[in-house]
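Below is how a single chain appears once it has passed through the pipeline. First comes the sequence as given, then the structure the pipeline wrote out for it. We keep one example in the README because the format questions we get most often are answered faster by looking than by reading.
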Amino acid sequence: MLIKKGIIVTGSKGRAMATDIFFVATGEKKPVIIYAHGFNGFKDWGNFDLIARQFADVGFVFVKFNFSHNGTTLEQPEEFVDLEAYGNNNYTIQLDDLELIIDWAVDPEKEFEQEIDPENLYLLGHSLGGGLVILKAAEDRRVKKIVTWAAISECKTPWTNWTTERIGKWKKTGVEFTLNSRTKQELPLYYQLYENFQQNRERLDIQKAIASLKIPVLLCHGSKDEAVPVEKANDLKTWQPAAELFIVESDHVFGRKHPWISAELPEAMQDVVLRTIKFF
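Resulting structure:
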């Protein structure tokens, strides 16, 4: 298997995105899957290489990347050390990042061109990344199938349950903070995130986007998800009745954590991976 990690792809506002690619080199074109991580996530969260290898083993090219403004750096791809970038992240930046990764993956001049079939481009996203792949599929006809894992159903992360008073304070001060429960960091969110949502409501309408899709969709979700309740998956299914729904008895990350040192995935995560492979 060929694995190249830390490839630099230029993202939004010229910022570098650390990108990984996994495939078995055969010289024959294979479907390509691009994975979009979630809020407070990164491409290597929970030893994601274990998952990437499984897709490559069965004949896919698997690509994962760090969004340009997710707070990590090329030198520290698993740590939130660039808090200015983190604070300036927003939905349209991430959608643009995803488009740039797609452009890179299907570039006929790229190093791996002989291994990638640009006519079979699939997107996979977790949590916020799940919402993003729905939105991107609705605006990019190159996407032929999508799978979401614990996807959001509206672009209001992380202020979905904030009070009007807190949002008012956010506007007044220009910054609010979100606690990363894993690292215990208070991570800044500049008010531009809320403004970006308000200014791009139509583009960021997940309900409208998923309802418009004419491609195969698989929605995977944990029945015990506290971060994004399983009712959100039911909403997505209601808006797109043709979508397949796969529910497992698990949490938001399907039993994983970071760091994940085991060579085996939790049962729930493995079930979701196998169901995703079957669907793709």
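The first helix runs from residue 49 to 57.

See the next section for the split statistics.
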